[in-house]
Amino acid sequence: MIIRVRSFRALLARATAACAVALALTLPGGQVPAAADSSTAGVPAGSSRIPVDIRELPVPPTVPADGVCTHPTGCVSANWSGIGTPGFSWNPKYVYLGLLYAGAPESGPASIYTGNQVLAVRTDGGTFPNGEAWKCITCGVSYGSDIDTSQLIYPPAHELADRKRVLVGNGILECGSGRTTYAATDTRCTPANTRITPIYWNDKPLAAPNGDGSANGREWRLSPDGVHLLWDDLDLKNLTELPLVGRLAYDAQNQRYDLVHISVLMNTAAEYQPLVAESGNQLRLNHAGMVGEPRGFTSDGQATLGIQTLESDNVDGWATDLSTGRSRPVTRHAHYADPLAMSPNGKWLLAGEVNGSGRMDFISGMPGIPPLTDQLSTTGYISGIRNDHNRRNFLPWLVDPKTGNGFQINTGAGLDWNLAADPVWLADSTAAVYTENLACGANPTPHACADSTEPGGRNSRLMIARFRTLTPSVATPPAPASDTTWGVPYTPGMTLPQAQPVPTGTYTLQGQAKGSATVQITDNSAGTRILSIAVDYDGYSDDGTNIIDGTERVERTSNTTLGCAPGTAQELSCVTWTEDLTLSGRHTGTKLTGPDGFTLGPRTIIGGNFKAVGTLTTTIDGTTYTQPPANI
User: Fold this and answer.
1) Considering the chain, what percentage of its residues have pLDDT values greater than 70?
2) pLDDT tens digits along 571-618
3) In terms of residue numbers, what domain contains 287?
4) pTM, full prediction
5) Is 471 exposed, middle or buried (0-12, 13-18, 19+ CB in 10 A)?
6) What are the DSSP calls for 119-140, one per residue?
7) How far apart are CA 278 and CA 176, in angstroms?
8) Is 144 helix (H, G, I), strand (E, B) or coil?
9) Closest CA to 337 of 437, 408, 412
10) 364 within some domain
11) Does residue 496 lie within any of the structural domains?
12) Would strands 115-122 and 94-101 be described as parallel, antiparallel, or unpaired?
């Protein structure tokens, strides 16, 4: 048996790429990984050569082992994710950075360098007047109790279109007074003249506890228009997310920003459903309303970025037009994509993909299967497979958002350092900055790796990837998007819309190229939730090159080993896959489960703790990919 090391898309690219991509990849210490200059992983035929240099950006020194920091501008925690998420600046000389300071003295000037903070970091090799390549813009700043400091490190900071105010955590930072205001990077911007004004939604601070374990909004991202904010509302009972978008409006009387003109980006009309039942019991896959979990905006601010299923058991990035609700994929066959950032000129996407790590090939590797069983929905279970405690298996891919094709930019660098949350582009669209976390650290799994060799043994680092052949461009804030969207207008206290399943019945889905699939859907008695989906494929193909035959089924089940049953905690059931599929055409393969199927429980979603009952195995062109070992 051959256990897969590289992804199916890498295999596919080797067979189809017309030209190689040269990667001039330099890792910390100047080491160039083997084969980095000849990889064609994931690059479609005719792709341009994109040389890339990857290096570390400077951050504060790591707190010593004794926990006492003597550096005058503070020390970063050595912990996993101690270096948080980078954020956007309209000046390509800077990025913003969430960071966890540690070891500060209790008194004196250096005492302000403690806890979660936001820094401005130089990207051009320059320094601030303090002699450092960074400046903390939130340290020592006074703010009220409605600013949640846990949010400073993530979601990412983002400079507003006026190039002076900065979204930090659940507030807006600005410095100066009256008409005299300064950019956060300006030397005249000091803790004494800086303030952070909170953002409110539903008459409560954004991110405030709701009392049921959920928060008043999460995962927010600022539009490049500097006016609109995208966030989601998490229903812990059913573990579903509803994305929302609204306008930031300053309330002078209450000295806060309110989110107004809000839309829920979920519309129950058939035209916005991913799977539509039509006359004659025909099904149609519909690329609309594919926001899922919001990840940001396109560079023009006219569309949201989110993640949803494109091919079965794959979660890809999507751009969804705010006006029409039409969606287009911006990654393809990523296995699971989550961190997404579009360059300011709109030409490129830096995406964190699990593709290439070998983690999810056993379930996500076969191409050409339409997202039918996924409508149960299995998306949360699939996405949870990526996590192996601290090992998240995200790799950085440079992607053309028009085609969804791209390549892993650090091929050959190994899998011990994983991409963290959102990357960010420099304003001139020539480089992207992202944080990496060491997959080990306190990771109690069989997948051991070497201890950190970073300064002070820290387990996070800040990277910059410079794409040498990309032409610099001037970033200009786009005109504000309309407040009117394809979604449902939000009013406080309203019953939030929920996805509407296809009614119980037997349907036919025609392949876009040839063949068909017979689909049997069974809902609960109320017609509000799908209980099972069974599919029989007969020469089905959407692209004419990947042809699917055989059967598959997914259903909600209970399983005492996995500790789940309908009606138990959070009302989450287990999900069981039964697969007997054959791939033919350009490639050959099978996707097979064992005699008892393959079952996952809700702990895979909630804790990222992979444990399965049964087996699922995928074979492509003679290479067999099996599921990872349990990590509970």
Assistant:
1) 89
2) 578 999 999 999 999 999 999 999 999 999 988 887 678 899 999 999
3) 8-357+393-489
4) 0.91
5) exposed
6) EEEESSS---TTSSSEEESSTT
7) 59
8) coil
9) 408
10) no
11) no
12) antiparallel
